[in-house]
Amino acid sequence: MNKFVRLSVIAGLLMAGAGLVNTSFAANESAPVTLAQLPNLTQDPQDATVSERVTARFTRSHYRQFDLNADFSAKIFDRYLNMLDYGHNVLMASDVAQFADKRATLGEELKTGQLTTPYALFNLAQKRRFERYDYALKVLERPMDFTGNDTIELDRSKAPWPKDRAELDKLWDAKVKYDELNLKLTGKNDQEIRDVLSKRYHFAMKRLTQSNSEDVFQLVMNAFAHEIDPHTNYLSPRSTEQFNTEMSLSLEGIGAVLQGDDDYTVINSMVAGGPAAKSKAIAVGDRIVGVGQVQAGKQTPIVDVIGWRLDDVVALIKGPKGSKVRLQILPAGKNAKNHVITLTREKIRLEDRAVKMTIKNVGAQKVAVMDIPGFYVGLTDDVKVQLQKMAKQNVNSLVIDLRTNGGGALTEAVSLSGLFIPSGPVVQVRDNNGRIRQDSDTDGVVYYKGPLVVLVDRFSASASEIFAAAMQDYGRALIVGEPTFGKGTVQQYRSLNRIYDQMLRPEWPALGSVQYTIQKFYRINGGSTQRKGVTPDILMPTGIESIETGEKFEDNALPWDSINAATYTKLGDMKPFLPELLKEHEARIAQDPEFQYIQQDIARYKALKDKRNIASLNYAQRDKEDKEDDALRLSRLNERFKREGKKPLKSLDDLPKDYVAPDPYLDEADHIAVDLGSLEKAQGDQAAAK
Asked: Does 473 participate in catalysis according to the annotation?
């Protein structure tokens, strides 16, 4: 049976972001192109068959049972339209109106494989985008003026379509000024700005001429797939090849999953243990705006990649193990500043991303911390080894760090849970026919009985949530941190090829594959982790600007629901300890400078929340904001250095490249673990005295 089940939250996104092929062309050498060079794309001969097979597979076998009727068709159409023009700054209302009568019939086109409407709409969007870049080049010729009170709306995905060209021109006047201002803030003069943006816009126009039928087909198939649920995907032949490479457990590069978002290449997630994650200089949501190389010890110029195809950006970033790549990063946030980092490419193998344990002295107590980056095959055996080492060091309590752990093998989530309970159910799984099975630990052995804290964040997903939920339901561990991601679904991978295809259609290429949701899993208390995730017993404050991360932010995620609870015996109860634990926790963080910074950031975020989608186009205002941000960061660094007995910095440029920022969340989890150990010991002593 050709089946592959994956539980990672980023599973779909690992493949859906365009085929990672080694095709690129020099951005700064692109000759000007004309509108006449845009291809008029039509579907390939095999696409009708692929569309029929995808439609049949999704309508018959997906966990979400749905009818591909007129209403659902309209939703697919709207999603496809927004994928073509997410910022609502390319197409006009009149363009969209041309296709209004096709909204309800797109489903029929998918069933028959005759995709006339998606191709016509794609071709029109390409034409309009070309016209926009042509207009942007004309705007570049104007004198630059950043003294006014102009602003730009950064996210127009919910805005109405522009009513005419005049409204489009106004939007692009602001877009070009925004691009110019961002470069001016890096220190470039007017001519340098024009040179960079002229190359960028010309390259974007050249990129439009490189579009092919597979681009259109993959886009419309994924509009269909993503309308069913966020983790359902169509993979083109190139994307399928990339997926199979990833499933061989070997990735060569920087260890980041990239996604195209309008003109930007965005960090969607990072492979635990990879160069990007280890650098601690990149965060999910950051944008890669430039790429350079290091060849024979010399740095090549940074190539501006804004507006590039995703596969071309990836081709620049990928390279042999041991080589170096320079990335110009624009952090998430409206007033972020570019910075350049250098990463050494590595060959990342899943089995190399093993659990790591450190022993810390917290006061007079010893706390073991196990960092688990993913639920790889063999994790439970590795944790057993670490527990055996820990037992020899008189450790008082254990913290399991599941932050940024996107999941992995369901079997490992079950067996890892089994290390901390004698036996019993760990998770319940239901298919689309309502059949329920329980996955249980049956060995009757407990490998660690002491105080246990599990640290989670909003990126802890899937298998991480199964483990955390089981520990919480059994009363075996205290869960601390942020509410988790909320992915409670299981996906299956299937090829679209048939044995007879090459006999009947030898001229056809491979047909690609699909990944779709087949099951939901549930806690042993009966509740789903879908959407809601796992709510910690002790919530940590979060001060960073919150990216809308989590299943609940997806407009079409499967709903939360519940089933009957499994039969299980609780091993403990954290509720009696919570008042004292919360009291000590709140007292500590009130005195902790790092948490004071976090609280200040929360206050700033709330104060600016209503303005976060609007950016000023006034140079003095933006420069002032940047300098205030830099001054705040420098002040905090010097306060921290003073506490550590180090010399203060004169500027941020003096910050050592190997500087590692404190981890107040982990430090606090360690203290909570010590408190929990003391309370459990007191409870045990009291019980023994009776």
From this structure: yes
Closest CA to 409 of 463, 356, 372, 466: 463
Q: Of the candidates 350, 381, 400, which is a domain's last residue?
A: 350
In sequence order, what E strands does 89-210 have? 151-153
Same-domain pairing of 408 and 548: yes
Domain that holds residue 210: 31-235
Q: How far apart are CA 102 and CA 123, in angstroms?
A: 16
* 544 shares a domain with 471: yes
Which tens digits make up the pLDDT trace of 359-371? 999 999 999 999 9
User: Any catalytic annotation for residue 520?
Assistant: no
Catalytic residue among 75, 206, 487, 520: 487
Annotated catalytic, 616? no
**pLDDT computed for residue 3 by the predictor:** 34
Q: Are 457 and 404 in contact (CB under 8 A)?
A: yes
Considering 73, 236, 417, 462, which one is annotated as catalytic? 462
Same-domain check for residues 181 and 124? yes
Mean pLDDT of the chain: 88
Q: To which residue do tokens 């760990």 refer?
A: 426
d(Cα 133, Cα 339) in Å, to the nearest integer? 26
Whole-model pTM? 0.85
Residue in 382, 473, 537, 675 annotated catalytic: 473
Higher pLDDT, 502 or 247: 502
Instruction: With respect to residue 587, please indicate whether it lies within any of the assigned structural domains.
Output: no
Summarize pLDDT for 626-649 with one digit per residue, the tens: 999 999 999 999 999 999 999 999
Residues 6+ away with beta carbon under 8 Å from 377? 350, 351, 409, 411, 412
